[in-house]
Write a structure and sequence with these properties.
Helix content is about 35%, strand content about 20%. By secondary structure, the protein is α+β, with helices and mostly antiparallel strands. The chain folds into two domains: about 15-200, 3-Layer(aba) Sandwich (Creatine Amidinohydrolase, Chain A, domain 1), CATH 3.40.350.10; about 205-455, Creatinase/methionine aminopeptidase superfamily (Creatine Amidinohydrolase), CATH 3.90.230. Strands 4-3-2-1-5-8 form a six-stranded mixed sheet, sandwiched between helices. A four-stranded antiparallel sheet has the order 15-16-19-20.
Length: about 450
């Protein structure tokens, strides 16, 4: 067992973690024109609030984690494509070792002369310096190379309407500090797009982790279906599903689980999860788990009493067919901005043909498009630039995307002499890996067909 497992994440596979992270840094170095800089978070998220400073779960900035594996605060990274020697192409800055703090919170990857060789071997960095020396080291490199430009990771991207940026996160504050320190003598540019272009293509290790997350999610969902009849509330159902995912895994949930019964499923990010389960209603769940630094992102909708009624069956089948339709269209070169509208057109037309034509009426809670059908999945559950500029770019092999059409509103119909009327929220979500010729549904083993679900629920 890696004694640094709390603060250093090792990708799955036979390749040593140090080599994996070094290869990623080297790939980014090939894209840089000048020194590139990354600043990890300075403190555990939430710990800036006094009331929240105890037992916070550490979550590193994904950009820093991707290049270093370090899941702890107070670190910085310098990449220098023009360094005179290999040892200074990649420089890691760490907090100095604090034995008293480690007594309270566990061992950290820290700077200390006596453990430097061990940390170098663990991380793959040949040059490691105290974080307190970051600014003086950077200044010396800028002067030596007479640099007029630096590249730093902060969230700025070119969108259809011009530059789009995040103004107030720790990365933006780091960029502002750089500009202040150099007082206009050095221009600071964002390297976020270069970084994202590299990061959104999953390598073999991250694909393997993504597949592990699918297996754990499938196992948990199978157990959930067999036990659903015993749950009385959304909370009981959620806690059971969360436990079954996490007890298998080496990580946490991918995000807070949604467990929404009946009309609650019409709230897209419902997390109240405390109301009674109603027989005869549908139960929508959105759930996933982390494996290494990767995630599963799955949605399923099932009948609480084990059987879809005729109204629910019509609507569920429409959404399921829309999901299969989208999967057929996903391939390299396609753009999500072009594919997504086709899915909502499919659902709208299917409602007319399969529901309205039988006398059904409905009122949706939105204008045709409730949410995106696909988003990137990777180091973040919603990977890529936060403004979704990537929707206008071509898909490439190695990208992992969600496939999650949905239908939310009030539906009413008479079928075989019986009147059905209810608020319905249905979402079915699988994860698709873009391949050279199309895509692979890596969630295919997780039950979604009506007969399959009803059989497991029985």
């Amino acid at each position: 067992m890696n004694r640094y497992s709390q603060v250093f994440i090792e990708p799955v596979g036979d390749v040593p973690a140090a080599e994996v992270y070094h290869s990623r840094r080297e790939a980014l170095l090939q894209k840089l024109d000048t020194i590139g800089l990354f600043c990890g978070i300075s403190q555990n998220p939430g710990s800036e609030e006094v009331y929240a400073e105890t037992w916070n779960k550490m979550v590193q900035d994904p950009s820093f984690l991707f290049l270093s594996g370090l899941n702890q605060p107070g670190c910085k990274l310098l990449l220098d494509p023009k360094a005179d020697d290999a040892e200074h192409r990649e420089v890691l800055f760490l907090p100095k070792k604090d034995a008293n703090k480690e007594f309270w919170t566990g061992i950290k990857v820290a700077y200390a002369e006596e453990s430097l060789a061990e940390v170098q071997k663990l991380t793959g960095f040949k040059t490691i310096l105290p974080e307190t020396e970051f600014w003086s080291y950077l200044n010396s490199r800028v002067q030596k190379q007479n640099l007029k430009t630096l590249e730093a990771f902060y969230l700025e991207f070119e969108g259809e309407t011009g530059l789009m940026s995040v103004k107030d996160d720790h990365n933006a504050k780091f960029a502002a500090e750089l500009r202040k320190r150099f007082d206009g003598r050095v221009q600071v540019k964002s390297l976020a797009q270069k970084h994202m272009d590299l990061r959104v293509i999953l390598d073999d290790a991250r694909i393997a982790d993504s597949r592990r997350a699918q297996v754990w999610t499938n196992n948990a969902f199978g157990e959930f279906l067999k036990n659903l009849k015993d749950f009385k509330t959304e909370r009981e159902a959620q806690l059971f599903l969360d436990y079954k995912m996490q007890v298998q895994s080496d990580g946490d949930l991918a995000f807070p689980t949604i467990m929404a019964n009946g009309k609650n499923a019409c709230c897209l990010h419902y997390v109240k999860n405390d109301e009674a389960l109603e027989p005869g209603k549908l139960l929508l769940m959105d759930f996933g788990v982390r494996a290494g630094t990767q995630h599963s992102d799955i949605s399923r909708t099932v009948p609480v009493n084990g059987k879809f009624n005729p109204l629910q069956k019509i609507l569920y089948t429409i959404v399921l067919d829309a999901q299969k339709f989208h999967q057929k269209n996903v391939k390299p070169g396609a753009k999500l901005a072009d594919l997504n509208p086709l899915v909502w057109d499919f659902i709208w037309n299917a409602l007319q043909e399969r529901f309205v034509s039988k006398g059904g009426t409905f009122k949706l809670l939105y204008e045709k498009r409730p949410h995106g059908v696909s988003h990137l999945i990777g180091e973040q559950i919603h990977e890529g630039d936060p403004f979704r500029c990537y929707m206008q770019k071509s898909l490439k092999p190695g990208m992992l995307i969600s496939n999650e059409p949905g239908l939310y509103g009030y539906f009413e119909i008479d079928l075989d002499g019986i009147h059905y009327a209810e608020d319905v929220g249905i979402r079915i979500e699988n994860d698709l890996l873009v391949t050279e010729t199309g895509c692979e549904d890596i969630s295919a083993e997780i039950p979604r067909e009506i007969a399959e679900l009803e059989n497991l629920l029985a």
